[in-house]
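Below is a filled-in request sheet from our internal design queue. Each sheet records the structural input a requester submitted and the sequence that came back. We keep these sheets so that new team members can see what a complete request looks like end to end.

REQUESTER: design group, bay 2
PRIORITY: normal
MODE: inverse folding
CHAIN LENGTH: 394
BACKBONE (tokenized):
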């Protein structure tokens, strides 16, 4: 039996167990840095396989290493574990039992795919050259878990030669995988603005300094950065998602707080947008008499594939699934992914695993989201084969 057939056999044998575990995790979602029970489930599964692991990495993350029988490279495989603060509305028999929390992005599926890979590699140690490092990461949804694990030393002991990431993708047919040749996802820069005016009676506006009116002007003005200062062919999005101001209908608001996020793909573009925002705030300060503070934070860089690593990943995917089931995607996503922090440090490749459910109109981060279970065995087969391929010295 060739290696692809052996991997398929192992994935099929584990499939029922992995689906059951996915549904258990789905019923008990945990938010960023709260993934205590999820981490326990991961640790328990690894323990049964006899795989050594460390828990509590980056607060609630788990890291496991599988040593092969031959010398070779170290391949990292990252899976995220956290859920979202969304009230589930799927009607599934295994729907979330925790009000206001839901696996609306499929991280429950990502977790069990990595565990399936662990099970497959445990059986295939004799074929594994080098080692595989499994990274079960918390807090991807807040774009903070990767950095927490890096700060805890996840890149070391052992150092990785390459690292793989993946995400289920409802726009891709189940049974297939998709990829982007270069840029996969956008960078994310968060900004917090406070405008400081002076409260006053609504009947006497000339005696106050209206921070709410300044905020209204600013929200509209900020959009001209994208429409008039960024090249039309350069992807960029500026979103003000929160605006809080005022305490009563007849009081001039003395302060206004805005929170938002900027997403770009080109190197250096987010810095230019920040400079433009600061210039506009200086204008608002002069024109509308408000003081301001701006806190700008780089949350995640753009996620880019390392071409040689991606090519070997795709070679493995085609061997396992056939050429017709590996497709290049038409465009990258303007969403962000903190796997990009790993990709900045280690050659990386990222794959989309098809998770479409025919007849279900949904997308990730929706209350009605569900992930096709077929993504689990497909993910296990492709990622296992890629780990064997990339750990070899060739």
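RETURNED SEQUENCE:
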């Amino acid at each position: 039996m060739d290696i692809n057939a052996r991997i398929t056999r192992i994935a099929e044998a584990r499939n029922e167990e992995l689906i059951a575990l996915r549904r258990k995790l789905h019923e008990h979602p945990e938010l960023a840095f709260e993934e205590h029970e999820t981490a326990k489930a991961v640790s328990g599964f690894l323990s049964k396989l006899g795989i050594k692991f460390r828990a509590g990495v980056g607060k609630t993350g788990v890291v496991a290493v599988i040593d092969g029988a031959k010398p070779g490279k170290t391949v990292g495989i990252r899976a995220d574990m956290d859920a979202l603060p969304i009230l589930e509305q799927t009607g599934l028999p295994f729907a979330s039992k925790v009000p206001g929390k839901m696996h609306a992005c499929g991280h429950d599926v990502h977790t069990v795919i990595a565990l399936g890979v662990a099970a497959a590699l445990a059986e295939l140690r004799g074929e594994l050259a080098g080692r595989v490092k499994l990274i079960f990461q918390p807090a991807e949804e807040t774009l903070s878990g990767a950095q927490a694990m890096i700060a805890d030393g996840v890149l070391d002991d052992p150092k990785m030669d390459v690292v793989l990431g993946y995400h289920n993708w409802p726009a891709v047919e189940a049974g297939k995988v998709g990829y982007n040749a270069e840029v996969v996802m956008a960078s994310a820069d968060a900004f917090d603005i406070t405008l400081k005016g002076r409260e006053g009676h609504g009947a006497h506006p000339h005696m106050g300094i209206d921070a709410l009116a300044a905020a209204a002007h600013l929200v509209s003005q900020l959009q001209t950065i994208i429409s008039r200062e960024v090249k039309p062919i350069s992807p960029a999005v500026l979103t003000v998602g929160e605006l809080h101001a005022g305490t009563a209908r007849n009081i001039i608001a003395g302060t206004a707080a805005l929170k938002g996020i900027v997403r770009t793909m080109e190197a250096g573009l987010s810095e230019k947008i920040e400079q433009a925002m600061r210039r506009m705030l200086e204008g608002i300060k002069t024109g509308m008499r408000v003081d301001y503070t701006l806190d700008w934070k780089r949350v995640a860089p753009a996620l880019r594939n390392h071409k040689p690593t991606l090519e070997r990943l795709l070679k493995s995917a085609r061997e396992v699934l056939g050429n017709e089931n590996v497709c290049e995607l038409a465009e990258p996503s303007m969403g962000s992914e903190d796997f990009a922090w790993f990709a900045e440090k280690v050659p990386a490749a990222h794959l989309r695993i098809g998770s479409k459910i025919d007849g279900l109109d949904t997308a990730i981060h929706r209350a009605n989201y569900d992930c096709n279970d077929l993504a689990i065995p497909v993910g296990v087969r492709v990622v296992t084969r890629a780990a064997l391929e990339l750990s070899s010295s060739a």
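SHEET NOTES:
- Residues 3-27 form the longest helix (25 residues).
- The radius of gyration is 24 Å.
FILED BY: M.R.
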